[in-house]
């Protein structure tokens, strides 16, 4: 086989379709986010404003987080020293799991190196714990959930996105006595819409299902203590396993699940993705503890985040730009063509110093390519004004349609 030719063919296909991804060399500056420095391909540097980061609340630069990380680094050094079972469990890991269990009002929590790994490891392990398990998954679930279900090699069923009637049809078709789990998300990050948590819990109880809820794009930002949409809606006790991340609103790195002590103990004991992976560095765990603890009481930051998102959506709507608005903090602007989306992204960066990555297939369906803006409490009014003016100018320059999408 001509291996290089096969690689060329695969890469050329991405170029031809306009969805080849490039990395932008960005240097974040302490106390300056969302301002950063872009190193251009020619080596010159330029100031930019980051509008597509997942550090939703700016906690990656919060003094309480940095102080905790410095203290842990000085006390313990850089790495964790191994897997949790060998030498990688420290007081910082224990504190973090206790903090997360308290956050979600569960008996226990288990931390992973990322929320992707947490989803993959947990969902792929559950069929070993419950032989004959059927997992019923929302069609728009994150790739990590899809991969975990696939790796579990159990009976899987897909229901149409947020379609409760279809979910009921699927459940009615399954053996009544078979173990079942419904896997879904609280906020779907590409459109910013909410999962019908209460209604899904009702169906789960009716049909004897476990529930698995991904709160990755909600933890830290929703609920009176930042535990997510399930906390906001008073539904945490109806969810069996909650998945969350430490790398978005909490501004650090890592992922986790929160559940009953028995469930966590079983996943800890059987999941290869946990057993054979080096644990988070203690300094990262310490920073996460500080961030989670702080956001349990910082409602003002959550309120400012929601206000910033509302203002940006209102102003883009006023220009007639085709945004999707489901009431969450995510602001998607639909372009509908991968080449145009990439071009808009490039022009925003080159001409206006605004960084937002294009989102193309397979992350979103073909024909729904978009720019996805993530305003935060540290994006000020001037930054928002610059973004809105730039979008208005470029939308007109590219002669794109100005038609608001319905939610």
Detailed description of the structure:
The chain is an alpha/beta fold and 407 residues long. It has helices spanning 3-16, 63-76, 91-103, 115-129, 143-152, 164-172, 197-207, 229-232, 261-270, 272-275, 282-295, 299-318, 338-352, 381-397; strands at residues 26-28, 35-39, 45-50, 108-112, 134-138, 155-159, 180-185, 187-188, 193-194, 209-214, 241-245, 255-259, 331-334, 354-355, 358-359, 370-373. The strands form 4 sheets. It has a 7-stranded mixed sheet, sandwiched between helices. Helix 3 runs parallel beside helix 11. The model has no long low-confidence stretch (mean pLDDT 95).
H-E order: HEEEHHEHEHEHEEEHEHEEHHHHEHEEEH
Q: Which bin fits the share of residues in helices?
A: 40-55%
Percent range for β-strand residues: 15-25%
Largest sheet: spatial strand order: 4-12-11-10-7-5-6
Structural class determined from secondary elements: alpha/beta
Distance between the termini: 49 Å
What number is the mean pLDDT?
95
Report the major sheet: 7 strands, mixed
DSSP strand tally: 16
Query: Uncertain spans, ≥5 residues at pLDDT below 50?
Result: none
Radius of gyration: 22 Å
Total helical elements? 14
- Give the overall shape: globular
């Amino acid at each position: 086989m001509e291996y290089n030719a096969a690689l060329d063919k695969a890469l050329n296909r991405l170029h031809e379709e306009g969805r080849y991804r490039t990395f932008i060399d960005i240097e974040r500056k302490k106390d300056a986010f969302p301002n950063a420095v872009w190193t251009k391909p020619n080596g010159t540097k330029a100031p930019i404003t980051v509008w597509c980061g997942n550090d939703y609340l700016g906690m990656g630069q919060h003094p309480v987080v940095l102080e905790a990380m410095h203290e842990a680094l000085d006390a313990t050094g850089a790495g964790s020293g191994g897997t949790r079972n060998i030498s990688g469990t420290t007081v910082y890991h224990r504190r973090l799991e206790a903090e997360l269990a308290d956050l979600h009002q569960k008996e226990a929590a288990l931390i992973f190196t990322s929320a992707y790994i947490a989803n993959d490891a947990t969902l792929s392990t559950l069929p070993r714990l419950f032989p004959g398990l059927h997992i019923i998954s929302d069609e728009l679930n994150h790739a990590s959930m899809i991969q975990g279900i696939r790796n579990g090699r159990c009976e899987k069923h897909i229901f149409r996105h947020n379609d409760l009637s279809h979910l009921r049809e699927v459940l009615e078709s399954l053996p009544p006595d078979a173990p079942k789990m419904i896997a879904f998300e609280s906020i779907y990050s590409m459109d910013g819409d909410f999962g019908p948590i209460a209604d899904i819990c009702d169906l789960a109880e009716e049909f004897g299902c476990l529930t698995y809820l991904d709160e990755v794009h909600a933890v830290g930002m929703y609920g009176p203590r930042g535990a997510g949409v399930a906390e906001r809606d008073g539904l945490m006790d109806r969810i069996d396993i909650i998945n969350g991340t430490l790398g978005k609103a909490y501004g650090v790195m890592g992922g986790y699940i929160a559940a009953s002590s028995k469930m966590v103990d079983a996943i800890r004991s059987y999941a290869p993705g946990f057993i054979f992976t080096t644990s988070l560095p203690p300094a990262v765990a310490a920073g996460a503890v500080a961030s989670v603890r702080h956001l349990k009481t910082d409602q003002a930051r959550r309120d400012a985040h929601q206000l910033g998102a509302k203002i940006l959506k209102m102003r883009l709507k006023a220009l007639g730009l085709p945004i999707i608005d489901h009431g969450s903090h995510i602001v998607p602007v639909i372009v509908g063509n991968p080449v145009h989306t990439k071009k808009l992204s490039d022009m925003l960066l080159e001409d206006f110093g605004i960084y937002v990555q294009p989102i193309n297939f397979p992350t979103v369906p073909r024909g729904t390519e978009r720019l996805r803006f993530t305003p935060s409490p540290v994006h000020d009014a001037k930054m928002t004004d610059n973004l809105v003016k730039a979008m208005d100018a470029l939308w007109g320059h590219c002669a794109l349609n100005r038609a608001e999408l319905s939610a």
